[in-house]
Amino acid sequence: MRRACLAAALVMLASCSQAGEPDRSPAPTMSASPGSRAELPVARTEVSGAGWLRRIVVVGGLSADGAASDRVDLYDPAADRWEPGPALPRPLHHAGLAVIGDRVYVAGGYTNEDGRWVPQSRVSSLGQGERGWRDEPSMAQARGGLALAATDDHLVAVGGTTATAVTRTTEVLRPGRPGGWRPGPDLSEDRDHLAGASAGGRVYAVAGRVGGLDTNLATVESWDPAADGAWRAEPRLNDTRGGTSAAQAGGRVCVAGGEEPAGTIASVECLAGDRWERVARLAVPRHGLAVAGLDGRLHVIGGGSQPGLSVSPAHEVLTVG
Q1: What secondary structure does DSSP assign to 20-61, as a single string?
Q2: What is the pLDDT of residues 148-173, one digit of tens each?
Q3: Number of domain units in the chain
Q4: Which of 161, 172, 229, 240 is the most exposed place for a label (fewest CB within 10 A)?
Q5: Is 4 left (phi over 0), alpha (psi -120 to 50) or beta?
Q6: Cα dihedral 240/320/299/123 (nearest 10)
Q7: CATH number, domain containing residue 77
Q8: What angle is formed at CA 61 by the lines to CA 276 and CA 44, rounded to 5 degrees?
Q9: Are 30 and 270 spatial neighbours (Cβ–Cβ below 8 Å)?
């Protein structure tokens, strides 16, 4: 019954609004066909996700009691089924996750230690068929709430919060090459709880915030790590967002969810040329969610349905044309 209700809600998402979340989205202007899929096996928020080897991988997060998780869940779209993957080396939340080739990388994030969130610099990777995660070179700067994105051969860690402050710094790793992480150009502004994605050889740093929920950003910038140079300003989002996530789907960078003082954010936006378009609304608006692209579809998984600590197992999918 719950899944039937969710599917019905998705059919009406262009005209309905969620309690506590401002109705700011017009009818979709791009082709977006939403639907529900098998729920995340264990509801949690502040998860990280990516499309990896024909599947979706979701790692870490916070459970309803605020405990950090080392869970790794793998979703098979063809079977609409989840299965467990090798646990993370340590429980993590607010981490970065990205894929290069056949390996998925998790970087930074927070561990819970003596009631404190402690930012991490450690990086691990997992390959197809492997039973455990492999240590990779650590970042120079420990950071949680960061974004991690990848081009064909560059892994880029962006923003987040260090042990002392929100940061605009960038680090770059070319896996398998000597030298470890190197500094990249700074973003134009500090960003925490931001989203990261890549398309056309460029890495995108999307929205985020610099403090509380009333400091959400709508700005976006991009960088080509192969050409080096500086970050470039991109079109602004329609909606300010912090605690959001992004991925490339159908050749476009798309961003979903987030939280603000009025509640969680329902709109999904995709970059179309020189502007962002609201393409759909989530039936279950969430923040701290995983957004992953695979085969032209945008998977929006887990997160919190209310600002602060809350958890959801929801899994919605948009086909972006």
Answers
A1: TS-----S-SS-EEEEE-PPPSS--BS-EEEEETTEEEEE--
A2: 999 999 999 999 999 999 999 999 99
A3: 1
A4: 229
A5: alpha
A6: -70
A7: 2.120.10.80
A8: 85
A9: yes
